[in-house]
């Protein structure tokens, strides 16, 4: 099944979101992901009127509750650990998902910081119906990114990311390279930085060169600390089978630790 | 059983750690927690020579591995969500504990962001032998903190904390009040701040007034976003029974979701 994601965030060249959404509806797409701020709301309404199953990705309980009111079918709850945009609240997944279990009525999947069977098992324990992984799939055989980048991810660890755009309140977690460090240095300068000054550093065209040409320092590129869990470059099938098998083992072993007191 | 914690971190009036440790040994204490930087190492060695069971609390895998080499008996792995000192690596518990399961040989307990049965169940799934909770115990009947503060914790949510001392590389997560916000504002000022200027704001004597007199704005005080999970002020017995019961339920229900394929 084909599903489509539209994310509504500040962009150097904002796409015509409403026109994109119309095409998605006309093409008969059955599942759509939305993400980002209040700009997502009218699109969610368009999708719902067209009978599309909508998964809304958000980084906070209050945003999830706002999306519930518009009638999304599923939420993707994105903790602080995630690659890309973690929002500005900085609540780690372990806590955010425990809160989601209490505060949300809509089914949710867990995003951010999950890269193996233990993470999947923990997400299930935290009430999630499943997980939403990005970083681990970048380092698979089928991924289109250059092999140099896959190897850079194998070498990297959980400390190999940084936050850019923090001072612009549009925080993004990216691979910690020279370009990202230059952006952060400019942001931390007395008086901070205006976006136009760093725009040439963070352009999508430069980021694309990373994936195409395999130079990890060509631009900024999204990745999470899940790189610390990446030791090889499996096929997607191997990765998923491993995650599933390990999660099942962990869940069964964890349940076996429960010692019920005698009811006699 | 009485256990004692000694934490080695920058302090306005550093205590005589070695003398404290000698008293702990002389008094026949059997379990000791250590935390903080390399200054903990000689104390861990002293404890081990005296036959004490040592639990070392740390915020990163590499620090945990360093403590393993000195022979600690157990690790307490403290994720980004924690109250007090989360370190400077900012790795959320969901990821940090999955890494711990792979990288550590020593048994570990999970700290930070855990305030209910789901958090406990997730920690078990992430390979922890148990959990180390602080914030939830502050809002219990037995806790010595003023009832106003317990009620402030019930009212607070997961966004009610902030990080002070970030620019001094001695980050601490505290309740987000006027004093904490003043410290953060001074740290963010062009040119930053030197510790002596903020020392009067963050003194332990002022923090103690918060707990004693019940004014949440009297000084800075440690608390984590786990406040979002605090809805009442139970006794410690009620809190622990609830956590245990809920964690058991979650672990059994999660394991029941595992559908083993037929082996026929």
UniProtKB/TrEMBL annotation, chains A, B:
Keywords linked to the UniProt accession: Flavoprotein, FMN, Oxidoreductase
Keyword field contains Oxidoreductase: yes
Residues that span the membrane, as ranges: none
GO molecular function, one term: nitronate monooxygenase activity
Taxonomy, superkingdom: Eukaryota
Entry keyword annotation includes Metal-binding: no
PANTHER family per the UniProt record, alphabetical: 2-NITROPROPANE DIOXYGENASE, 2-NITROPROPANE DIOXYGENASE-LIKE PROTEIN
Protein's UniProt name: BY PROTMAP: gi|814543992|emb|CEQ38886.1| SPOSA6832_00365 [Sporidiobolus salmonicolor]
